[in-house]
Automatic annotation (TrEMBL):
Top-rank lineage group of the source organism: Eukaryota
GO molecular function, one term: ATP binding
EC assignment: 2.7.12.1
Name by which UniProt lists this protein: Dual serine/threonine and tyrosine protein kinase
Gene Ontology cellular component list: cytoplasm
Keywords: Cytoplasm, Kinase, Serine/threonine-protein kinase, Transferase, Tyrosine-protein kinase
Enzyme class: transferase
Xref: PANTHER family: DUAL SERINE/THREONINE AND TYROSINE PROTEIN KINASE (PTHR46392), DUAL SERINE_THREONINE AND TYROSINE PROTEIN KINASE (PTHR46392:SF1)
Domain Protein kinase: 1-179
Biological processes per GO annotation: cellular response to fibroblast growth factor stimulus; negative regulation of apoptotic process; positive regulation of ERK1 and ERK2 cascade; positive regulation of fibroblast growth factor receptor signaling pathway
């Protein structure tokens, strides 16, 4: 697989802070990439800051397809990055909705405009304690600067019940509305 050389990953970009509209555009790019993968019947299984690369114009590309598998072939193998892992990854029955969950966690970072671990996860002293907390429903905390619209996207995406998570088309529409509202507000 050959692709253009990309400038940096989302982790590095958020360490330096980005404008809100740029962050929402990045979120849209990730959703569009996931929709493309899911349309091919593939599940990424490791959506995180370091696996989103940005070009010079801050347009995002999903990378590291090493854990990517056809949905019909998933066996329940435990892969991914712990804080981004949906609770059902610990069972063995999961599908493309694990990427929706991981996007919800990624979106928390995008909206926070930083890379600091959510406090609710940072207090866990080991991966086992973190996984236990996630299985019990612990999620990142709401930060003061999160809009209601952004918070709603996150909480729907990381719902404990996979069937309650939104379709990515709905997530895309919601982020586009936020972005359009931002553009209207800044031009008014």
């Amino acid at each position: 697989l050959i692709m253009e050389r990309l400038k940096r990953d989302l982790y590095a970009a958020l360490k330096n802070r980005l404008e809100f509209s740029i962050r929402m555009r990045i979120a849209l790019d990730v959703v569009e990439g996931l929709r493309y993968l899911h349309g091919l019947g593939l599940v990424h299984r490791d959506i995180k800051l370091k696996n989103v690369l940005l070009d010079e114009a801050n347009r995002a590309r999903i990378t590291d397809l090493g854990f990517c598998k056809p949905e019909v072939m998933m066996s329940g193998s435990l892969v991914g990055t712990p804080i981004h892992m949906a609770p059902e990854l610990f069972t063995s029955k999961y599908d493309h909705t694990v990427d929706v969950y991981a996007f919800g966690i990624l979106f928390w970072y995008i909206c926070s405009n930083g890379v600091k671990l959510p406090t609710n996860f940072d207090i866990c002293s080991s991966k086992d304690i973190l996984w236990s907390a996630v299985k019990k429903g612990v999620r990142p905390e709401r930060l003061m600067d999160f809009s209601d619209e952004c918070w709603e996207i996150m909480t729907k995406c990381w719902d404990t019940e996979p069937s309650h998570r939104p379709y990515l088309g709905e997530v895309q529409d919601n982020i586009e509305q936020i972005l359009n509202t931002t553009r209207t507000t800044t031009t008014a």
